[in-house]
């Protein structure tokens, strides 16, 4: 670091305002380390803590609110960095705090020895004596975006050509099994909150309301006899390839939710709308598939944080054996 910058920091000039989430032993240790090393160019403006009372002070540093207040406190203090320094925080607590702020100008750090299991792209930085992991967001670069689009369209075209004869057989089977249309259309919410019609093969009786909770039981009375076969083989999902060609869906991404579910989202949850939804995704291959889509948000946020064409390809390849060798969700 240059002598000029060092001198400015020593005078308290040009320091980066920092919030610390956790006012306990770990948090006060972080605050003390920052105070002891002015050359790092940091200034603690306050604590966030889910147990300490707002308005009190811990070692001379004010408690400004809880984790739920992070967006407001960041705005009021102009904090440029948020340090997670509470061993009681879960990965979900961290995810929610990051997504609540949703500000690309704010950096998020985790005291590394507290969260050894944290994965994803990270930078290791140090206030002397204090190892810190920076949570790095990833956006697709132009070439990566092109490769994702190429992968989407190529997979969709190839799979549609392969499925055309199967689709003809499925259409006949649906018509013979029950009255009603072959395709099921339902409004879903896509990129940036825009709604679109998602297509699937109809697997339930036509009188079943469109926006009921999806079946989770193989013997659900709403599902037709032929529909049970389609759901077991996940063939009812294949018309979504049309949505991929239309640019409404990607092959891989968060599952598109129904509008009435999205209407209940908190601000931090709307982050999942920042990428194009997909036919398959992380929670389908490693998540708890017996839960509703909106209860698998951690997997969506991990994907958003780590998205890449290579990750998409891995998820697509892992989805194939799951369809044929595991019972998919209903």
Could you characterize the architecture of this molecule?
- With 330 residues, the protein is of the alpha/beta class.
- It has 2 domains: 133 residues, NAD(P)-binding Rossmann-like Domain (Rossmann fold, 3-Layer(aba) Sandwich); 184 residues, no CATH class.
- 38% of the residues lie in helices and 18% in strands.
- The chain has 11 helices and 12 strands.
- α5 packs antiparallel against α6 and α5 packs antiparallel against α7.
- About 3% of the residues have low confidence.
In terms of topology, how is this protein built?
Elements: H1 3-10, E1 16-21, H2 25-36, E2 42-48, E3 57-58, E4 61-65, H3 70-77, E5 81-84, H4 91-101, E6 107-111, E7 122-127, E8 130-135, H5 142-177, E9 183-189, E10 195-201, H6 225-232, H7 240-246, E11 250-252, H8 259-262, E12 278-280, H9 282-286, H10 297-306, H11 309-325
Parallel strand pairs: 1-2, 1-5, 2-4, 5-6, 11-12
Antiparallel strand pairs: 3-4, 6-8, 7-8, 9-10
Quick one: how many beta strands? Answer: 12
Strand % is: 15-25%
Shape: elongated
Order of helices and strands: HEHEEEHEHEEEHEEHHEHEHHH
Number of domains: 2
Q: Major beta sheet, specifics? A: 8 strands, mixed
Task: Give the key terms.
single chain, two-stranded antiparallel ribbon, elongated, Rossmann fold, about 20% strand, 8-stranded mixed beta sheet, alpha/beta, about 325 residues, about 40% helix
Summed up:
It is built from 11 helices and 12 strands. It has 330 residues and is of the alpha/beta class.
């Amino acid at each position: 670091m240059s002598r000029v910058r060092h001198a400015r920091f020593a005078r308290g000039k040009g320091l980066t305002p920092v919030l610390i989430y956790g006012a306990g032993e770990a948090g006060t240790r972080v605050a003390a380390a920052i105070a002891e090393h002015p050359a790092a160019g940091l200034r603690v403006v306050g604590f966030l803590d889910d147990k300490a009372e707002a308005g009190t002070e811990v070692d001379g540093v004010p408690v400004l609110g809880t984790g739920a207040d992070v967006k407001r406190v960041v705005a009021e203090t102009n904090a440029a960095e948020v340090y997670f320094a509470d061993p009681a925080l879960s990965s979900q607590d961290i995810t929610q705090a990051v997504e609540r702020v949703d500000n690309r100008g704010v950096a998020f750090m985790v005291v590394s020895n507290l969260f050894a299991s944290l994965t994803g792209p990270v930078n290791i930085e140090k206030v002397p004596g204090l190892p810190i992991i920076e949570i790095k967001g990833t956006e697709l670069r132009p070439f990566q975006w092109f490769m994702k689009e190429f992968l989407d369209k190529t997979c969709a075209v190839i799979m549609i050509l392969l499925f055309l004869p199967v689709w003809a057989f499925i259409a006949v089977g649906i018509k013979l099994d029950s009255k009603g249309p072959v395709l099921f259309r339902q409004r879903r919410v896509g990129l940036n909150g825009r709604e679109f019609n998602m297509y699937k093969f109809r697997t339930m009786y036509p009188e079943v309301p469109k926006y009921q909770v999806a079946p989770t039981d193989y013997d659900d009375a709403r599902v037709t006899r032929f529909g049970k076969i389609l759901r077991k083989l996940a063939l009812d999902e294949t018309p979504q390839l049309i949505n991929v060609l239309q640019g409404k869906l990607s092959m891989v991404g968060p599952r598109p939710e129904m509008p009435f579910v999205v209407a209940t989202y908190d601000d931090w949850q709307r982050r999942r709308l920042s990428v194009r939804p997909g036919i398959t995704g992380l929670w389908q291959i490693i998540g708890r598939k017996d839960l509703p889509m909106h209860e698998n948000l951690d997997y969506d946020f991990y994907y958003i944080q780590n998205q890449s064409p290579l990750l998409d390809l891995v998820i697509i390849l892992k989805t194939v054996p799951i369809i044929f060798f595991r019972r998919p969700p209903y």
